[in-house]
Amino acid sequence: MTATNRVEELAAGSKLRIRRAPANAASLTAIAAVEGVLLAADDDGRVARGGTLPADDALAAVALLLELWVPEDRPLSALVAELPEVNLVHEDVHCPWAAKGVVMRTLIDEAKGYETDNLDGLKVYLDEGWVSLMPDPDQPRFHIYAEGRTPDGLELDIPATF
């Protein structure tokens, strides 16, 4: 869910369709197993290629990169330079297990009046970007991501713990 909105911009005008899913390995492989899916990827660098082996496969990711790169007949650095700038920050905040539910309910209440997405925690859309607050399923912490159109104002002023 925390993939930058730039993904949609890159896909705009093409036949590609972006489908967001919860940020976990099980969702990645489930999406890759759906017929017609070319690629499933997440923010942790896991990639599963649809149509072959719907599992996290680094070698398949390298093969896909090579497959896309060879017809371009240009240095990979030139292609990377053409990618849109991404202004994304990430912080982890400690949160005791017993407080996670209260924190999520409080955040949801505070987000009233904003456009939100609850696919994988809470994502709040703002005028110039978004912030995503995701409780970690395995650790006593929250992952906080924020993206803005420019790097201005992206400093996360958050407490060390909730």
Task: Give an overview in words.
The protein contains five helices and seven strands, in the order H-H-E-E-H-H-E-H-E-E-E-E. It has helices spanning 6-11, 25-32, 58-69, 76-82, 100-110, and strands at 39-41, 47-49, 88-94, 115-117, 122-126, 129-135, 141-148. Strands 3-7-6-5-4 form a five-stranded antiparallel beta sheet, with helices on one face. It has a two-stranded antiparallel ribbon with strand order 1-2. Strand 4 (115-117) and strand 5 (122-126) form a beta hairpin. The longest helix has 12 residues, at 58-69. It is globular and about 50 Å long. The two termini are 22 Å apart.
Write the topology of this structure.
Elements: H1 6-11, H2 25-32, E1 39-41, E2 47-49, H3 58-69, H4 76-82, E3 88-94, H5 100-110, E4 115-117, E5 122-126, E6 129-135, E7 141-148
Antiparallel strand pairs: 1-2, 3-7, 4-5, 5-6, 6-7
Summarize it:
By secondary structure, the protein is of the alpha+beta class. It is built from five helices and seven strands, in the order H-H-E-E-H-H-E-H-E-E-E-E.
